[in-house]
Amino acid sequence: MTLIQTLRTEARAAPESGIVAVVNHGRLREGLIPLWAGEGDLPTPSFISDAAARGLANGETFYTWQKGVPELRQALARYYARHFGKHVAEEEFIVTASGMHAIQLAIDAIAGSGDEVIYLSPAWPNFAAAAGVAGAVPVAVTLDQSGNGWSCDVEKIASAITPRTKALFINTPSNPTGWTADEETLLAILDLARARNLWIIADEIYALFHYGHGRAPSFLDVATAEDRILFVNSFSKNWAMTGWRVGWIKTHPALQQVFENLIQYSTSGVAQFMQRGAVAALDEGDGFIESQVERARAARDLVCDILGATGKARFTVPQGAFYLFFTVDGITDSRAAAFDIVDNANVGLAPGTAFGPGGEAFLRLCFHRRLDQLEEAAHRLAKWMKTI
C-alpha cells in the first residue's frame, strides 16, 4: 500500500482545480493579462487597511470571540438593514475565515456521508468539491441556456431530489454564468425546499454586483424567519478583500451555538485586527461598492462589444457578478483552448471544464479590471479567434 492510499478516499478524490492548472501554466509569462481569477485588480482601500492596522497596533492579536466580535456582527446587521431592508439581530451572524469556510461549515452542519446536495451547474467548482470531501454526494442540475439567456427550471431540481437529498446550494447572481434568479424563481425554489424539508445554502456573494436596478433579488425577499436557509457570504468581492479570508454565515439565532462550536474546531476564530478592517468595510464602504459596480458595468459592456463584433463569440450578457461566460465557434475543448490562449494570445482565461456539467464548451473571463487592460485583452482574443 502506498502512502497516499492510506488517506481517506474523499481526500484522495478531491479534484485539482481546473482554473489553477491554467494559472500555473501562464502565471510567469511576461505581459500576460490575467483574467482567470475571480477578483478585481484594485488593492483593498486604505480606509479598511488602516482600520486593521490600528487594531494590530493596539495589540488585538489575542484569541477573540469565536463567532466574531460584537462590533462586526452589529455592523453586519446595519449592512442588511441598508441593503436588504431587513431587521437582522447580531445573533444571526457568525464570522468565518472566508466565504469558502462558511460553505464548509454549512455543509458540515447539514450533510455527511452518503447524503446528497443539489447544486446548479455550471458552477464555481469549490462547492461540489467541498461537499465531496465532507463525504456528501454533489448532484448537478444544469441551468438551461437559450437565446433568452440562462434560466433555472425548478422542475429539474425537483426531479433530482431523492430520499438522501439534504440541501440545495443556490448561487445567484451566478459564478460563472451571471444568471440571476428573479423573485418568482427564488420563491419556487423555496417552496420546493419547504415541501421536501430541505435546507437551502444561499450564496449571494454577488448580490450587489447586479446590473439591473439596485441589488439582485434575494431569498431574504421571500423567506420567513423559520425557513431552513443558511446564507454564506464573504468580504472578498464587494470590498476588494480576496486575500483577507474573512466571511460570514447568516443563520437562525437558535443555531448560533452550533456554528460557534464548529468555528472552535476548525479555525478558533478570525483575527481581531482583521475584523476591525471588516467593520470599516461595512460601515464606510458603500460608496466604494457603488464605484466598483459601475466600473464593472462599463468593463462588461466594453468586452461584450469587442468580442461580439468578432461574430465568433457566443454569450449572454451577464445580469450579475463580473464574468463573461462565452463559447467560440469551432472550439469544443475549452481546457485545451485556455492553454492555447495563454500561449498564443497572452491572456489568461478559466476553462469551462472547471465549472462542471454544462460548462465544457465555455471560457470564463473576469472583467473586473481596468478598461485599458480589458480592451487590450479583448483585442488579443479577437485576433486569436481569427486563427480558429
TrEMBL record:
- GO MF entry, a single one: transaminase activity
Give the source's domain of life in one word.
Bacteria
Q: Matching Gene3D superfamilies, A to Z?
A: Aspartate Aminotransferase, domain 1, Type I PLP-dependent aspartate aminotransferase-like (Major domain)
Q: Which InterPro entries match?
A: Aminotransferase_I/II_large (IPR004839), AspAT/PAT-like (IPR050596), NHTrfase_class1_PyrdxlP-BS (IPR004838), PyrdxlP-dep_Trfase (IPR015424), PyrdxlP-dep_Trfase_major (IPR015421), PyrdxlP-dep_Trfase_small (IPR015422)
The EC number of this protein is 2.6.1.-
What cofactor does its activity depend on?
pyridoxal 5'-phosphate
User: Mind telling me which CDD domains this protein's record contains?
Assistant: AAT_like
Family from the record: Belongs to the class-I pyridoxal-phosphate-dependent aminotransferase family.
**Protein name listed in UniProt:** Aminotransferase
Please tell me the species this chain comes from.
Mesorhizobium captivum
Traced from the root, the source organism's taxonomic lineage reads:
Bacteria, Pseudomonadati, Pseudomonadota, Alphaproteobacteria, Hyphomicrobiales
